[in-house]
Amino acid sequence: MSDQNKTLSSPVARLSFNEKFRLQTWLMGIIAFAVVLFLLVQAKFILIALAIAIILFSLTSDAINSIQRLQIGQVRIANWLASIVAVVLIASGLLTMAGLVISQINTVLSTTLAYTDDAQRAIAQMFAWMGEDVEESVLQTVRSIQVSGYMRSAAGQAGTILSQVVLIILFVGFLFAERVWFGTKLENLMADKAQAQRVSAIIGSIIRRVNRYLLVKTLISSVTGIAIFLLLRVFNLEFAVAMGLLTFVLNFIPSVGSIIATLVVTLVAYIQVPEPQTAVLIFVLAGMTQFLLGNVIDPMLMGKTLRLSSFGIIISLAFWGAVWGIPGMFLAVPFMVAVMIVCSHIPAARPMAVLLSREGLPEEEFPLLAPEDEEEARKAENDLNYSHAISAE
Predict the structure, then answer these.
(1) Strands 71-72 and 75-76
(2) Is residue 187 part of a domain?
(3) Residues 57-69 pLDDT 10s
(4) Are 219 and 170 contained in the same domain?
(5) Among positive and negative, which fits the CA dihedral 47, 52, 57, 62?
(6) pTM of this prediction?
(7) What whole-number distance in Å separates Cα of residue 272 and Cα of residue 232?
(8) How many domains does the chain have?
(9) How far is the C-alpha of 28 from the C-alpha of 46, rounded, in Å?
(10) Which of 11, 119, 163, 353 is geometrically suited to a Cys-Cys bond with 343, CB 3.0 to 4.6 A?
(11) For every one of its 393 residues, what pLDDT tens digit does the chain have, with 9 covering 90 and above?
(12) How far is CA 220 from the centre of its chain?
């Protein structure tokens, strides 16, 4: 057989041009995904701060626009004044929250050593029903854990929180400084008024859904944290403030956050009062509170804001938790909302939006443009095409 026949009969030669192109596209996509993933991990400190700053900016931007429209007598509030007030309020809130978190971390760390032995024995006693050998083995295993190392790591994280908050405040300040020019930049970037309006509508849809989700979650998490604080106060247990704050924070993690918070609260109660009846009672009360607020009140307030697949939320939590840790789990749902809405407006990516949505219907706000806006956008597009034809002639 000649070399030419061997070449034609080889598997690579039998591939058509389209198959080769499709294979190259997949390979390039895998390489691009690996590069993006590497950059997400390496620059996570800056990217997490930027993502949180964008969310805070979107939450307060509509409020700033409303304040700007207010008129006191003959005086209208200037844009720069409203922006400065917003940045000051956001900075004050973030610094207050960071100070509260750091103070609670220091309180927990300063008293952890006093409860270390009690905690180890309490954990081992949970396995007493399996026999004394198992209980002793668990006790030795728990005692082998280097608690001091975890305490030093937690103390280091407290310093990181303050640095992250300062970076978020800087990002928010610059976003407000550029807020006036976003619309102009978008139109110049698209070079097409109709396309710019469509992109603006998509961004607006993302902001509305994410804002509604965050506001409802903040309300539900606040009520749940206060309820856990009062529950521990009733039983005269320590760390009531810390557990309330932990519950508030963990409730922003869908599905698993409330479960983790309930287990941690129960364990803290069991360590302080080594009576199974008290721990079980606290577990039942905390679980009922989480279920009532998270599974009854939360869906009523949320309505059809998210319309996300539950399995997709778990996958998003796992992915962003692996990439960015706990902050990534907080941001998993807003990222998923943005991806679903964007994919729903791209024909090639629409199957992804269908998979991410709950009922397979990702759209909620159509048409994106009002009829008069569509007519104006169509005229602008025709004028642009006519100018291109004239320049080509």
Answers:
(1) antiparallel
(2) no
(3) 888 877 777 666 6
(4) no
(5) positive
(6) 0.74
(7) 11
(8) 2
(9) 27
(10) 353
(11) 445 454 445 555 555 667 777 778 888 888 988 998 898 888 888 999 999 998 888 888 777 776 666 666 667 777 777 778 888 888 888 888 888 887 777 777 666 666 666 666 777 776 666 777 776 777 777 666 666 566 666 666 666 788 888 899 999 888 888 877 887 787 788 777 788 888 888 888 888 888 888 888 889 999 999 999 999 999 888 888 888 988 998 898 887 888 889 988 988 888 887 677 888 899 999 999 988 888 778 877 776 666 788 888 888 888 998 898 888 888 888 888 888 888 888 787 788 888 888 776 665 444 444 444 444 444 444 444 434 343 344
(12) 16
43/159 same-domain check: yes
Q: Which long-range contacts does 261-264 make (Cβ < 8 Å, 24+ apart)? A: 261/228, 261/286, 261/290, 262/286, 262/287, 262/290
Residue from 306, 257, 335 nearest 51 by CA = 335
Where does residue 242 rank: exposed (0-12), middle (13-18), buried (19+ CB within 10 A)? buried
**Residues 303-334: tens digit of each pLDDT:** 666 678 888 888 888 899 889 888 888 888 88
Among 180, 214, 239, the domain-final residue is 180
Domain boundary residue among 155, 180, 205?
A: 180
In a domain, 353, yes or no: no
Task: Answer yes or no: is 300 within a domain.
Answer: yes
Q: Does residue 151 share a domain with residue 27?
A: yes
Residue 323 counted as domain residue: no
- Alpha helix (H) ranges present in the chain? 3-9, 11-14, 17-42, 44-69, 79-125, 132-143, 147-177, 182-190, 193-234, 240-250, 256-272, 276-291, 298-302, 310-324, 326-344, 350-356, 371-392
Q: Are 304 and 350 in contact (CB under 8 A)?
A: no
Going from the C-alpha of 298 to that of each of 212, 220, 224, 327, 358, the distances in angstroms are 12, 7, 11, 22, 17
Q: Are residues 147 and 221 in the same domain?
A: no
Q: Which domain holds residue 216?
A: 192-305+363-393
Q: Are residues 203 and 127 located together in one domain of the fold?
A: no
How many whole angstroms separate alpha carbon 234 and alpha carbon 286?
A: 13
100 plus 197 within the same structural domain: no
Residue 284 sits in the same domain as residue 386: yes
> Within this chain, do residues 200 and 157 fall inside the same structural domain, yes or no?
no
